[in-house]
Every structure is written in C-alpha cells, then in structure tokens.
Amino acid sequence: MKTEFEQGVQSDLRHSEQLVDAERLQQLAAFRQQALEAMPANVALPRHRLRPLLWPTAGMALASILLLVLALPFSPFKPTLLNESLSDNRELYDDLEFYYWLAENEEDLRG
Amino acid sequence: MDTSTLKGGLNIETRASHLALDGFLASVQSRAFAMARAALGNADDAMDVVQDSMLQLVKSYADRDVDEWRKLFYRILNNKINDLFRRRQLQRRFGALLPGLGHQSADEQDTAGDPFDKIPGAEGDPAVHLQRERTIASLHQQISRLPRRQREAFMLRCWEGFSTIETAQTMACSEGSVKTHYSRALSALRVNLGRLGEENPDEN
Fold first, then answer.
1. CB contact under 8 A, A109 and B186
2. Could you give the ipTM of this predicted complex?
3. Of B60, B84, B110, which residue sits at a domain end?
4. What residues make up the domain containing B119?
C-alpha cells in the first residue's frame, strides 16, 4: 500500500506526462512508425504463444492414452465411461492436430 | 487463396503483431519520454532515448509475449538512460582535460529553465497550475540526482506502478534489492523535497 507521499508524487509525475506538447507527441508518433517499419518480417504472436502450449499438451495427451491402453484390460469402469474418456482424449488429439497444422502452416508461410 | 495473407504481403499474425506493438508503444510513449526527461534533465536527449528504446524493442522483442513487452521496454529505456549518463561522464572527464569539449553538456540540465512544454489554454487556476509545475520540476530535478539503481527502482515502482516482483524482473535483481533501493530513493526525495520547501517557503 502506498503512503500519502508516494501517492502525491505518483500523481504529480503522471500529471507531468500530460504536459508534453503537440509537436513532441507528433515526433513520438513518428518514432513509433519508424520503429514498426523496422519490425522483422513474419513476426507472429500466436506462434510464440503456441510453443509453450504445444509440448505439455502433447505430453499430457500421450500420457493419458498410454494410461488408458494399459488400464483398459483391468478397468472396472463401464464401457460408457470409457467411451467418454476416449472422447475427451479424442478432443485433445483434435486440438493437437490443429496446433501442429497451425505451426506447420506458419513455417510454410515463412519458408 | 491463402486466407492468412493480407493485402500488402503481411500475413494475419504479422499484422496482428504490428497493431499490438503500435498500441503498446502508444500507451507508453508519453510516460517513457517524461521519465527519460526527468532522469536526464534534457528533453532532446529524452526523445533520442525513447526513439532508440522503441526501435530496440521492435527489432529484438517483437515476437515476445505481449505481457513481457512492458518490462522489456522499461529495461531497455533504463539501459539507454544509463548509457547516456556514462557518455556524459566521459564528456565531462575529457572536457576537463580538453577545454572546448566540456561545454557540450552545458545545456543538459534544462529542467529548471524550461521544465515543461506548456499546454496552450490549460484549464484551472493558473496559480495552482504554476505551483504544480514547480513541484514537478523540483521532483524531476531530485530524481535526476538519485543514484542510478535508486532512480530505476523509484521510476518503476512509484511512477510506472510495477510491483516489487515486476521491478525486480525489470532491473534484473532480487526483490530485497528493489525494496532497499526504493526505500532509500523515497527517503532521499522526502528529505530533499522537504528541504527545497523550507528554502522556498513562498513556493509551497
């Protein structure tokens, strides 16, 4: 929690941001555009976000399938429950296929 | 037809990144400029630092997660400010040895003379407005006098509003160090701003 002094200082400092004249704001906007023009080609945010998702998802799905295959002969569950579990994993697989397709597709676009 | 390619050769993801970065930079540009000016005491140097920081973020970190941009940007900004401080120190050192070089830094501290670009037709009581401008000018001056790490901790914690963890990540140090630097910065500012108030009682 901020003290009264900190709050006062923060308020003054943030107020100072509004005291920038129009000319400098225009210059800043121009800098922004220059910077964006220098952006490397084919930068794609989703791909980066995908990467951390891909391997844990794949690992979890494969582990689930392996567990099901090993447990299947000894399973006390009714077939309907098994079908539901398989159905869940099927959805995971469907997602995975999509992730792979997306990643490959992006690689193709880059190439 | 490839649906992921837009007109102009940009694919959808690149275009999305472009827009996201533009929005991010627009959201930080005024604060970054004000911070750099407070630290450096010179508006032109501050503009250079902000320009370089924007360029470096886009060139090197455009593909990073959006949530990381803010911390990365302020880390770059602080590094650029520190680089400029070092250059000035060198100029001063060599300026003392070689008369004629030193005067390059004569206009560095423009905070006192021309603290802010005035807004034409600013609303409110002019006396209150003037008083606030003076307070801010004093604040900026005191911030520029803080030791480097204290200044960084103060600008990130108090001005930007980062948490201790975020500040530590941006400054690449421990949370304990952030707390120490920040607390010292606050104490110094409290003392020095209080002293200024005592020296200029009519201004407060």
1. no
2. 0.76
3. B110
4. 113-204
